[in-house]
Amino acid sequence: MRLLFTGSYPVATWLPFVFAGMALGRLDLTAAVTRVRLAVLGPVLALAGYGGSWTAIRLFGVTDLVGNDAVPGSGKLSGPGGVLELGYQDGDRWVASGAVNTGTPAWLLVSSPHSGTPFEIVGSVGVAITVLVCALVLTDKLPRLGSPVTAVGSMSLTAYTGHVIAIAVLGLSGAQGEPPAVLVGFIVAAIVFALAWSRFFRRGPLEFLLHTATKPALRLGRKPA
Fold it and tell me: How many CB atoms lie within 10 A of CB 18?
């Protein structure tokens, strides 16, 4: 149950993003009609997710209930306007864990970062689609400017895994309270590595290993019955 639903960043909250990415990957993103539809869909989903959460919390009057349940190990209310952050205490900082308190269904109405609720998932997918459309238009107009993003995108698994390892090696908590310089450093490092690697190799390191590992399965699938 923890792996699927209640643990830190459970599978159930990540699969929607995987499915959304697979669906987008099957679209002709060069077609103008596809981009227009996505340009509409993205903001609509973002509004439905974050706006729906804001409305639902106030409509059902559960702000106080969620706040009372916000205890260390499950979540807390903090920041301007009572912005909700879920996670665990790390010294004097709060670290997001990707799961909400299961003590009351009211927590499913929030849409805070790393909460993993339906509202947050829908809103995040909407924002991602909107960013994707903007990036596509930008790279068409300014291809040189888009090359760093393209390089990192071609090895996203490596970049994501690398930053998680770097957080552990550097002793960072991964909390939202890290200074902006840390974020900038990760972005620059990912871009520099991706640009350098892509000059010599078609796939990123982990992408190559994944491709190699799945080759036998692909060959089996192509064998005649």
Answer: 10
Same domain, residue pair 70 and 132? yes
Q: Do residues 136 and 177 both lie within one domain?
A: no
**Whole-prediction pTM:** 0.76
**Which is nearest to 207 in space by CA: 165, 151, 166?**
151
H or E stretch covering 131: helix 118-141
Single out the residue in 88, 107, 141 at which a domain terminates. 141
Crossing angle, helix 118-141 and helix 143-153, to 10 degrees? 140
106, β-bridge pairs: none
The Cα–Cα gap between 194 and 202 comes to: 11
Residues 201 and 111 in one domain: no
The pair of structure tokens assigned to 100 is 């909400």
List pLDDT tens digits, range 41-81.
999 999 999 999 888 888 887 766 655 333 323 344 433 33
Q: Is residue 67 included in any domain, yes or no?
A: yes
How open is the CA angle 21-25-28, to the nearest 5 degrees? 140
Task: Kindly state whether residues 85 and 35 are assigned to the same domain.
Answer: yes
Domain around 194: 146-218
Tokens of 51: 């706006």
Scan for tokens 């960072």, then name that residue: 172
